[in-house]
Amino acid sequence: TGTHVGGPMYYLRNGVGAFAPELGKWLGLAFALFGAAAAFGIGNAVQVNSMAAALGKSFAVPTYLTGIVVAVLVGIVIVGGIRRIGDVAGKLVPAMIVLYIGAALLILIVNIADVPAAIGLIFTHAFTPAAAMGGFAGAAVAAAVRFGVARGVFSNESGLGSAAIAHAAARTDNPVRQGIIAMLGTFIDTLIVCTMTALVIITSGAWTATGAGGGGLTGAVLTSTAFQASIPGGQYVVTIALVVFAFTTILGWSYYGERCWQYMLGEKSLIVYRVVWIAAALSFANVKVDFVWNLSDTLNGLMAVPNLVGLLLLAPMVFKVTREYFAAQKSVA
After folding, report:
1. Cα dist. 25→30, 31, 40, 117, 300 in Å?
2. Is the pLDDT of residue 66 over 70?
3. pTM of the model
């Protein structure tokens, strides 16, 4: 078809398959199967559900209406393929990143006196049972590790192999250089954006707030509550940014899922996946948030297993080409 495709299913089949053909074949198929399924969790269900929750809280938009609008817009964009997805994301995301980070920085400056204590609280509760109220009531070390790893994976997709599908579509003359660019994404979205969000939530006191049912606030509602408590109109900043981020994530993961589906069933069957994807966006807006997150975490774990096995087996090759790349860079300098 003239399009570039790649990702774990290919380097598992061809890389591991070079010295263990049967293992490489089955690892590639396993990743494609779990990847196509996991996309509906991390890339569809959680995103549209978060959008519905945020829009419902800030603008009283019915969840079913959010589902309908998202499904229609996603359908329009994904028919255009990877180039249209890239065009849409490229125009929407940069402005929203500036808006979100700017608002978060403003809040942290206003609450600067509470930031050191907030950082200390993060480390304290990471290793000792929490005695706080709200969403952290009774949390123990095991729970902290379990949710920390799960949300970390959700944030930066480390170990899942999904990012390799996107970077395989890039035009580059060296895989190591592209890998370095991929690593930069993890640094920005997790160490910078997520850390800033966590500090805003803690310094605002929103992490101890309770919802209508008496339990702690979670997800988009927790973040919007934190921003609103710190600056006037803060919840609207979060809602608008979240809608853009979630929408572009749905578009990106539709591509990941399509590549996995195409690997298993061929290019001509993609229309089936796209129809199911659009229908899922319509329905997941109305599903309970706990189910959505549990589904996503489970599917992410299944997706990661074949990829991590392959990475361990291919590590010697990665070390070799990386050393060669930096040696070449040093000789040029």
Report:
1. 9, 10, 24, 51, 21
2. yes
3. 0.86
